[in-house]
């Protein structure tokens, strides 16, 4: 009989699982996607000929398996395939982009990661530089023994003064609570081995290095210099994957909101979904279940005598929500000082971290610099203003027009644009549960994992599926590892949960790499 896998979510985790199942097993995947778009948080939102990359997605991984997987669908521009070079005019292509991201602080630009060069030292001022150097020397001599929270994590790597100068305000904008109340695992996943000494060593190596390959496997992720990017945004890649999945016999069903999950027997699950547009209810039967939906929702939809302690932990898991304001401008007030042919003196950044504490904006994306194809008119500037909030708070509940006006005023206050007259058009996108948080009942998450692992044929993968702040490559690796386990007959799921921990994850236990 045909075996089926029900996959909840058509983001990187779910689509990767589906493609891997079709390529390596006889299991047919059926993807149930709540939204009417493909890609999850990695989708591309189109607005009047311009495109928005929600959150910004660099296509880079230390996993060679992931890097090769992406290029199966979109080859790199200029690469040779069957002795034919991939043309720059080709639409189905990955661009090689230079990574430029800076910190905007004191109404000035600072390199990110922080490079303590002459320009940076001059901008900071003599007194602050002495404080930074002294604090760093002190923490190297007397490090915090046990890192109990994210603040300890940052201070141990950068010293208290540099932490308060460049990390504290932005991080607390992202999460909405003090760093002292966030678990240090977030830093271990997002920053990993980055430190001042590694940043300085990388800067010295960059002076003499002539060429860096796109793989950059021995470089800290925060220090990479270039990355791949689909010509029309991240959604282009995932739409290609979805197309291959359906072409090869899988199903991708959109507007399918899962309302209940019931395990009929250990190798048979019943999933009921309601169509968001028609209200039609459909029942799906599968032998495996891959879930990328938030753990809080998964536990709530299980038709099972779930222990009360597990329900309480799941309900207590916290998330951070996300709002992007797309602004189309005729020009920016801040301009690139570099002598180049950049249109309108456009700054070169992919994004700016807004460290200033007198505004609510957390990050600013310049979509022109991700790919020229994201902008309909190259003479115009297409920005994404990113705000972090909680469903129901004052930012989330603000009306669309009011919020856009508020965002424009913040850019004027920051001296990034001259006035409202610079704004040609605008849009707003709200994304709930964008970031799984490392507070709330996170500390007890292991009990929920232990409970879900008792369902032998259920696999939790992806960012929300695992309640881990994964990049898309980590979400993919978790899905790949789950399929590896099915192929190998492995019942223990620890290797799935080991993806993107503080341990070195790249090349670990990989196959076909």
Summarize the structure.
By secondary structure, the chain is of the alpha/beta class.
What does it look like?
- This protein is of the alpha/beta class.
- Among the domains are: 178 residues, 3-Layer(bba) Sandwich (FAD/NAD(P)-binding domain); 92 residues.
- Helix content is 32%, strand content 24%.
- The protein has 17 helices and 21 strands.
- It has a seven-stranded mixed sheet.
- Strand 1, helix 1 and strand 2 form a beta-alpha-beta unit.
- Helix 5 crosses helix 6 and helix 11 runs antiparallel to helix 12.
- 42% of the residues are buried.
- The C terminus is likely disordered.
Keywords:
FAD/NAD(P)-binding domain, 24% strand, 21 strands, 32% helix, alpha/beta, 513 residues, five-stranded parallel β-sheet, seven-stranded mixed β-sheet
The CATH homologous superfamily name of the domain at 3-41 and 234-315 and 441-497 equals: FAD/NAD(P)-binding domain
CATH topology of the domain at 3-41 and 234-315 and 441-497: FAD/NAD(P)-binding domain
What's the gyration radius in Å?
A: 23 Å
Secondary structure: number of strands: 21
Query: Helicity range of the residues?
Result: 25-40%
Helix count, DSSP H or I runs of 4 or more residues? 17
CATH class bucket of the domain at 3-41 and 234-315 and 441-497 = Alpha Beta
- Basic shape: globular
Percentage of residues in DSSP E strands: 15-25%
Largest sheet: 7 strands, mixed
The averaged pLDDT comes out at 89
Q: Uncertain spans, ≥5 residues at pLDDT below 50?
A: 200-207, 502-513
The CATH architecture name of the domain at 3-41 and 234-315 and 441-497 reads 3-Layer(bba) Sandwich
The rounded distance between the terminal residues' Cα atoms is 32 Å
Structural class: alpha/beta
Strand order of the largest sheet: 9-8-17-18-19-16-20
């Amino acid at each position: 009989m045909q075996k089926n896998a029900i996959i909840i979510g058509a983001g990187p985790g779910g689509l990767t699982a589906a493609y891997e199942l079709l390529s390596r097993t006889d299991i047919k995947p059926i993807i149930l996607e709540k939204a009417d778009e493909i890609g999850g948080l990695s989708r591309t939102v189109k607005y009047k000929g311009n495109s928005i990359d929600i959150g910004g997605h660099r296509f880079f991984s230390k996993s060679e398996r992931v890097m090769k997987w992406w290029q199966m669908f979109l080859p790199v521009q200029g690469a040779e395939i069957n002795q034919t070079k991939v043309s720059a005019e080709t639409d189905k292509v990955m661009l090689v982009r230079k990574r430029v991201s800076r910190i905007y602080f004191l109404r000035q630009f600072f390199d990110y990661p922080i490079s303590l060069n002459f320009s940076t030292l001059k901008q900071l001022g003599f007194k602050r530089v002495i404080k930074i150097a002294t604090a760093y020397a002190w923490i190297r001599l007397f490090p915090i023994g046990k890192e109990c929270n994210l603040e300890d994590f940052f201070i141990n790597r950068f010293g208290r003064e540099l932490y308060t100068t460049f990390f504290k305000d932005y991080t607390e904008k992202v999460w909405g609570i003090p760093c002292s109340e966030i678990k240090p695992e977030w830093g271990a996943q997002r920053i990993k081995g980055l430190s001042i000494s590694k940043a300085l060593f990388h800067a010295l190596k960059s002076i003499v290095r002539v060429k860096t390959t796109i793989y950059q496997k021995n470089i800290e992720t925060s220090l990479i210099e270039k990355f791949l990017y689909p010509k029309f945004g991240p959604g282009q890649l995932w739409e290609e994957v979805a197309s291959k999945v359906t072409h090869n016999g899988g199903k991708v069903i959109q507007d399918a909101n899962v309302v209940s999950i019931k395990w009929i027997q250990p190798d048979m699950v019943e999933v009921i979904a309601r169509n968001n547009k028609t209200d039609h209810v459909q029942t799906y039967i599968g032998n495996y279940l891959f879930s990328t939906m938030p753990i809080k929702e998964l536990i709530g939809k299980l038709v099972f005598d779930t222990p009360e302690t597990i329900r309480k932990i799941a309900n207590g898991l916290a998330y951070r929500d996300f709002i992007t304001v797309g602004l189309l401008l005729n020009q920016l007030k801040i301009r690139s000082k570099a002598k180049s042919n950049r249109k309108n003196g456009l700054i070169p950044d992919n994004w700016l971290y807004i460290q200033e504490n007198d505004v609510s904006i957390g990050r600013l994306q310049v979509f022109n610099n991700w790919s020229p194809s994201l902008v309909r008119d190259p003479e115009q500037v297409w920005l994404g203003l990113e705000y972090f909030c909680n469903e129901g708070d004052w930012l989330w509940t603000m009306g669309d027009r009011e919020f856009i006006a508020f965002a424009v005023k913040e850019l004027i206050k920051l001296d990034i644009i001259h006035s409202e007259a610079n704004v040609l058009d605008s849009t707003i996108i709200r994304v709930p549960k964008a970031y799984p948080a490392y507070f709330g009942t996170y500390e007890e998450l292991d009990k929920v994992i232990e409970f879900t692992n008792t369902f032998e044929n259920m696999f939790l993968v992806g960012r929300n599926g695992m309640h881990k702040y994964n990049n898309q490559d980590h979400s993919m690796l978790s899905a790949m590892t789950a399929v590896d386990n099915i192929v190998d007959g492995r019942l223990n799921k620890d290797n799935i949960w080991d993806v993107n921990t503080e341990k070195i994850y790249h090349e670990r236990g990989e196959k076909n790499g």
